[in-house]
Amino acid sequence: MSNRALLEVIALDVEDAVAAQAGGADRLELVTDMAADGLTPARETFAAIRAAVDIPLRVMIRKADGFAAGDVSLLAATARELRAEGAREFVLGFLNADGSPDLAAVEAVLAELAGCAWTFHRAIDRAADRDQLRKALADLPGLDTYLTAGAAAGVEEGLPVLLAEAARGGEPGYGARILVGGGLGLAHVPVLRAGGVDAFHIGGAARPGGWERPVSAAAVAEWRAALD
């Protein structure tokens, strides 16, 4: 069996998507408005990217900055519309004010996804109790990934948590894949790989010119080489 690590790259548009695929990305996370840490892109953007690349796409279901769900009916309608457009993989995650998982909001969205694969995003890094959150979500249909830095401040602070959670793989609540992102640098890769982490998520690291510039295929290729 191959031990090739998964490399996921944030894409805002077709130009990003094409460059990321050319650089060796395995999957894209599709968002808009990085000033709000990534919201749901337009259906038209999803459709254009789907037509331009042939790697998997995970689409964000998030309508406002922060981790509160907001209008749950709007989230559900958004998920339904993206499914109708052909989306088959998603990213979502909502917390209550006390830092517990908002299961009602998550389940309302999942009801529209019909078992599609999805990632619980970095809301886990703001949870009051990570272990409790994982166990509360463990049996939800389609959940196969947690996007996490291990800490709200980023990977540098969260490394001990990431390694500890990777070591618990297969325990109740720890079956989903760990996808590391949030302040991730190339220097973190060797220790994470040695600890059993095999999935990595980059956004700004794929854009040496900053978020106002598109994804660089060369930057993605550098990550691909480091992971391989």
Automatic annotation (TrEMBL):
Gene3D superfamilies cross-referenced by the UniProt entry: Copper homeostasis (CutC) domain
UniProt xrefs under InterPro entries: CutC-like, CutC-like_dom_sf
Coiled coil residues, start to end: none
Superkingdom per UniProt: Bacteria
Similarity remark: Belongs to the CutC family.
Name of the protein in its database record: Copper homeostasis protein cutC homolog
Source organism per UniProt: Streptomyces yangpuensis
